[in-house]
Design brief:
Blueprint (H helix, E strand, L loop, with lengths): L2 H15 L4 H15 L5 H18 L2 E5 L3 H5 L1 H11 L6 E5 L6 E6 L2 E6 H14 L1
Parallel strand pairs: 1-2
Antiparallel strand pairs: 1-3, 3-4
Amino acid sequence: MSLPLAYATALRDLVRRGAGDEAALIENLKAMLARKGHERLYPQIVREYEKLVLSKAVEDRGVLEVVSEKDISRLKGQIEEACAALHVSPENLEVRENDRLIGGFLLRKKAIQIDASFRRKLIELYRQLVAA
């Protein structure tokens, strides 16, 4: 791990733990860098810190697929339950329209998905009828 990345990771961890206000922690970092003679690393540390923060935001983002955006208000309770199950904030959802779902929704975060679509339910019903 490079020195700027190590400093950026330490800063991110302090902010996550609530060790202080982000601005105050950055000022403390600047003062510490000056004491150690590492001021020239500050721009690199800022870039690494921004990457870490952005990667966390992308990691926390979920993808919600619905037939139309009107369905979101109708399915709000179910969507919120699915978001809680996947630890996704409903505000961080990327909404996409998918007319193949017929109805309901599909929520994905990384490799995990919750499929509450009518399409899936119809396919399951078909399989049960064919197997019987």
